């Protein structure tokens, strides 16, 4: 299997599968952050919006992303947009809820301090609430990245794509039945998860070490 | 001397709890006034209404200057942990050009003896140093009035003396008008040009005392000065006067309540 790992890691076609998955994953995480953080800031700081949207959120959140795969395939086809959309959906929740939670935990004294120095509502949101929420948001992103990877590989496995690490595993299993290649695919998928997790943890320690 | 702050018939009620019951006083420009009162008497509410964080239920607060700054007791929760020491001091100066902001922050940090700590994060400093950062931030803002809420209550005794002397020095050097809220009688006498003594809840003004001590003070000699000792005793007596009456009132109210319960059942 080690020999097969070396062979695959030097094979351009395998590398392109890995790159496809990682790239789609990164795009999904960026989109999820761009949606979930602003939404979390609004939901966390305007209780009226939070109450109004509670029913919808409580309905959508428990739906397993994987259960949405057949529907997404029908609606979005077999291109990368399907796996990205589903990964975004899965990644949204941990980031959103961590952002809301962070705003609940915002120290009122920090807000008072900003206010006595003439900071308005928007200033408090962007100069105090957002930076103070950052550690929680980053933890949310770290959790979301792992979930997004699971969903992404799942979609690829279910033929929702013609390229990607999941597709590679699927091909190796169904065609020649190469279990060594299946294992290589699995190990590499796991390694992507570990690297992503450690990378984000390092970012957190480097930039938000308080 | 002109008045910097005028407080007229200021009152505040939370629900049915009256925290402040009609306070009137003034703070003159350049003066350091200490507000002393028993714990939980509404001192913090007073500070919050003056600083504009809370709109008072009644009465007026007028500041004859552009803006004020506040130093809170809990320095560790009042400094922004994601900003450097310099970033914290620059926070109130956001509207100024970058170069001026830098210069004013550096200057204020020099005043409090923290010129070398500008790049550190607040949580890398000791408690006393963190409170000095908070003081530097307030001074860099060049406030017409500096409000301080129990500013030295969370540091050890040694640091407290240092910070008290630091406050006396910077307000003398920069002619800052200061209002310090404290529960510590000794501190109010040591720091103040004037002391406002408050009663227990709801806070009312019991006495407005001039401090007959020279501007130059010293932790050892001032505290043994006859005038210091005399004034400290006087404030202590004033603060204790309020207590028994309050307790008697509470006791009487409880008794009336239990009596009415007996009658109704």
TrEMBL record, chain B:
InterPro entries: AAA+_ATPase, ABC_transporter-like_ATP-bd, ABC_transporter-like_CS, ABC_transporter_ATP-bind, P-loop_NTPase. Keywords: ATP-binding, Nucleotide-binding, Transport. SUPFAM superfamilies: P-loop containing nucleoside triphosphate hydrolases (SSF52540). Residues 5-225 form the ABC transporter domain. Gene3D superfamilies: P-loop containing nucleotide triphosphate hydrolases (3.40.50.300). The keyword Protein biosynthesis does not apply. Coiled coil: none annotated. Pfam families: ABC_tran. The keyword Lipoprotein does not apply. This is ABC transporter. It comes from Lentzea flava.
